[in-house]
Q: What sequence folds into this?
């Protein structure tokens, strides 16, 4: 499934293009709006992690719902129901979203740090925060995408459905990122974020067959 | 006999209202008469909490217990009523906060959590209205509600650290002690019973309406 997703993506480059361009446009707008000096130095560690996660959230909301919506649009959903078991399908789609998001983070975060004149005191903590937050974001988005692909007004609905579920993840990810930038230890928040990731993974694997099969 | 029960409920709620205004003493350390809103605010908040728990419970029953129409109708009705009661709790709370804290809104942890709960269940209703096919609507809504049940415990980790709280000590608190004038407590508990009964009565009505409508759409006699 995972290989199939990337082969399809290699043909159209739709998701990659959307997500990367969306993230960079938002980043440019944010940076321009803040002016050449950016955020004042004392406030950087508190303000900028939240901005980074907002950019990532919007980019994810723009690109990730497509994974299931396109199956419905191209009318390949029924063939997929026959060809793959629900768990294989979900894992493939989630892995695709995950690699896409991690790739996006790897591209956007260095540019963000450079543009905003932010340096991370603990680069390892930053990578951990981005990886754990991106994982939960990818898994949750995949399940919500499967839900909305069967509804009308999909684009708007994705944000409406995903936001309340993602709030704990975003709060913890922002706090972890802030701690990494400031060089503080945040083992409790990291543990809670990993717990959230695990809970969402188990719930998605159990719920996905119900969501997918009529 | 059962048709008398709603009238008994209205009588009970009128008595509670009278007791809240004339029998219960004013809370100490509260400005003016502001503590009297307690008898509406707290029971309504309880009712909305119970409604959201009930919605999760009926959604799970729907998914696990053979996809019965009435379980789905019960979950959807509980969400609608939970939203109504939650909105009332937010409004009464904001009014009280304006008097006591000087501002309608200050992102107190309780305000934050109720807004997130309202957003989640608003999204639940948006999802229901966006799916045309009835079977898919029930299945997807129940799945989304279950996802909410899984995520909800994390708000207990997250919300308290966002801000410190000015909210008065809850009646059901960690220490397990009730620090309240006995007469106030009597009225509060009576109001709690009244509003919970109101919720269950309205829920029963909404469920029956939903099932009748469902049957009518299916083409059978109502």
A:
């Amino acid at each position: 499934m995972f290989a199939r997703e990337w082969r399809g993506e290699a043909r159209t480059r739709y998701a990659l293009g959307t997500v990367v361009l969306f993230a960079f446009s938002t980043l440019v707008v944010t940076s321009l709006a803040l002016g050449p000096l950016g955020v004042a130095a004392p406030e950087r560690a508190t303000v900028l992690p939240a901005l980074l996660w907002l950019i990532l959230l919007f980019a994810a909301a723009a690109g990730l719902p497509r994974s299931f919506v396109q199956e419905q649009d191209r009318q390949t959903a029924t063939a997929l129901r026959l060809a793959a078991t629900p768990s294989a399908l979900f894992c493939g789609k989630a892995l695709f979203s995950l690699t896409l998001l991690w790739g996006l983070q790897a591209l956007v975060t260095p540019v963000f740090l450079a543009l905003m004149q932010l340096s991370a005191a603990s680069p390892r903590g930053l990578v951990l925060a981005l990886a754990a937050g991106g994982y939960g974001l990818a898994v949750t988005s995949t399940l919500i995408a499967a839900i909305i692909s069967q509804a009308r007004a999909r684009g708007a609905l994705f944000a409406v459905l995903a936001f309340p579920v993602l709030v704990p993840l975003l709060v913890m990810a922002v706090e972890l990122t802030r701690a990494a930038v400031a060089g503080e230890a945040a083992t409790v928040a990291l543990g809670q974020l990993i717990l959230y990731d695990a809970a969402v993974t188990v719930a998605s694997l159990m719920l996905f067959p119900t969501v997918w099969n009529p | 006999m059962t048709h008398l029960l709603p009238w008994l409920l209205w009588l009970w709620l009128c008595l509670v209202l009278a007791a809240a205004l004339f029998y219960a003493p004013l809370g100490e350390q509260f400005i003016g008469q502001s503590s009297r809103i307690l008898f509406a605010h707290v029971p309504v908040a309880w009712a909305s909490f119970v409604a959201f728990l009930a919605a999760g419970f009926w959604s799970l029953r729907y998914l696990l217990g053979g996809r019965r129409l009435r379980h789905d109708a019960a979950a959807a009705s509980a969400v609608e009523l939970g939203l109504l009661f939650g909105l009332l709790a937010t409004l009464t709370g904001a009014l009280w906060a304006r008097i006591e804290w000087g501002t309608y809104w200050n992102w107190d942890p309780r305000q934050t959590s109720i807004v997130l709960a309202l957003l989640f269940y608003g999204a639940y209703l948006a999802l229901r209205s966006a799916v045309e096919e009835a079977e898919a609507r029930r299945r997807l809504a129940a799945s989304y509600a279950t996802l909410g049940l899984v995520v909800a415990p994390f708000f207990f980790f997250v919300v308290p650290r966002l801000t410190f709280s000015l909210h008065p000590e809850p009646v059901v608190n960690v220490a397990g002690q009730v620090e309240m004038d006995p007469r106030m407590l009597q009225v509060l508990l009576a109001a709690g019973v009244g509003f919970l009964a109101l919720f269950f009565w309205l829920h029963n009505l909404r469920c029956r309406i939903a099932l009748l409508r469902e049957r009518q759409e299916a083409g059978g006699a109502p």
